[in-house]
Each structure stands twice: as structure tokens, then as C-alpha cells.
């Protein structure tokens, strides 16, 4: 029930919603209506097509590509040169979805000018519709500079993987004494002009409070049930690879890793036995 209007919330984004391109204004309307929505990561044309066919309204070309595409240990190792071709593929496969691309570590922190040049390059060379950068109060001036340059910005606070070393590892943020800092980060990014904010690994009650207080949509990952939207890394959601580690906040919605390994094994055996290719595959 929508507490403001007393009405049942609008149905979640449906194929009808995605019959037109998803705009930032839609995300703001969904917040006002209490319509929850799902964001997924995507890193290539084919998976972007699959996500778009599932009416996922926002696709994130996350710098988690560092881990799941390039096999690096942390997201600090991926470059803009590596991210742009991924985003270009996603934009081509995204259909009506809004595509947000991460600016990687080291491409926006030094100055407003560096941030604007990196974001403009990402958008110009990939066609992405918006960028995401990590950080709260400390990065708010960069958000303002990007917005002033006409670049839509999604913010990312709480646990920020690009700061994994300075945060001393993967830890829930905003507990106890950290709660006020998280509230300040949330206010700062909204006031700087971000159109949405990712809350990563934040206690559920704090994420709910921030969601109520902010005028912009919150997108949770390990931030409980009350955020306006949720995001997952798609490989985590479908257990690729089979047996791969998943944080506590992930639910498995499929088992693509096992299915892919089984298919690859069947193919290997069919080739070895001479069963594939068959007569029907010959020209
Ligand atoms: O890079 C990424 O995939 C992200 C999401 C987990 C929010 O930033």
C-alpha cells in the first residue's frame, strides 16, 4: 500500500513500461509511486539482450567486470580502456533499458576536470546514458561537476569496492558510529545532483531510513528490503561458475554455471565419440 495515496502501488515495470526507453524521470516516478524495480549488471551484447527481454529497466556496466570478466582480484585493477568496449556492447543489446556505466578507480578522483573528461569519454565512446561513481561527502564535488556538465550520475555509498583497501576489506558500513557518516554521504550525493544512489552492505534499518529521507531512488545490494530498487551482479544471481562464492545478500535465481559446464561436457563427449557433428549439420 502506498502510504501517501492509500492506493495499491503500481505494478512493477512491465513490457508495457519498456515499450519506450526508460528515462531517469521514470525512476523518480517509480519512487513516488512506491514501484520497486530491479537493476542487473551486464557486460556484453548477448547478456544485455537477455536482460532487456526480461524487462530489466536499468543495466549497470559495473566495474565488477574486473572480477567476473577479467578475473582481477579487486575492482581497483580495471581501466577505462577495458570498461568502454564492454559498455559499448551492452548499449547495443540493451533495448529500451537505461544503461549506466561505472567509472573505474583512478579516473575521477583527482579533479573535476578528470571526472568530466572520463565520463564524457565513456558516454561518447560507448553510448552509455549515465555514469556511476563511488563515494559520498568526499566525492560530492565531482558529482556536482558532472551534473553541471550535463552528465547524469548514479552515486554509490556504503561499502564501496574501489576503496576495499582503505576500508580494510569487505565490511558492512554504517553500523553504530558509522551511521551518521552514511546519512551525511546520502544527503551529500543527493544534494550534489545524483539521480539515484546505490547503498551497498548497509544495515537494513539505516537503508530504510535513508530511502524514506532521500528524494532520489535508493538501489540496495546487501541493504535489506526497503530500498526503492535492488541490484545484483548477474553471475552471482545464477551461480556462474558453479560452486562460486556468493555473499550473504545474494539469492540464486538460476544455475547457469552448472548448466554451462554440463553442456560443455556433453559437447566435448559428442565430439570425442564422433556423435557431433551429425549428417544433419553437414552442407
Ligand atoms: O560494479 C558493480 O557491479 C556494482 C554493483 C554491485 C552495484 O557497483
UniProtKB/TrEMBL annotation:
This enzyme's EC code(s): 2.1.2.11
Keywords recorded for this protein, A-Z: Cytoplasm, Magnesium, Metal-binding, Methyltransferase, Pantothenate biosynthesis, Transferase
Catalytic function, reaction form: (6R)-5,10-methylene-5,6,7,8-tetrahydrofolate + 3-methyl-2-oxobutanoate + H2O = 2-dehydropantoate + (6S)-5,6,7,8-tetrahydrofolate
Gene Ontology CC, one term: cytoplasm
Cofactor, how bound (note): Binds 1 Mg(2+) ion per subunit.
Pfam families xrefs: Pantoate_transf
Enzyme class: transferase
Binding positions for Mg(2+) per the UniProt entry: 63, 102, 134
Pathway annotation from the record: Cofactor biosynthesis; (R)-pantothenate biosynthesis; (R)-pantoate from 3-methyl-2-oxobutanoate: step 1/2
Active site positions, chain numbering: 200
GO molecular function list: 3-methyl-2-oxobutanoate hydroxymethyltransferase activity; magnesium ion binding; methyltransferase activity
Gene Ontology BP term (one): pantothenate biosynthetic process
Cofactor dependency: Mg(2+)
Subcellular location: Cytoplasm
Family to which the UniProt record says this protein belongs: Belongs to the PanB family.
Subunit organization: Homodecamer; pentamer of dimers.
Name recorded for this polypeptide: 3-methyl-2-oxobutanoate hydroxymethyltransferase
Originating organism: Corynebacterium durum F0235
Name of the encoding gene: panB
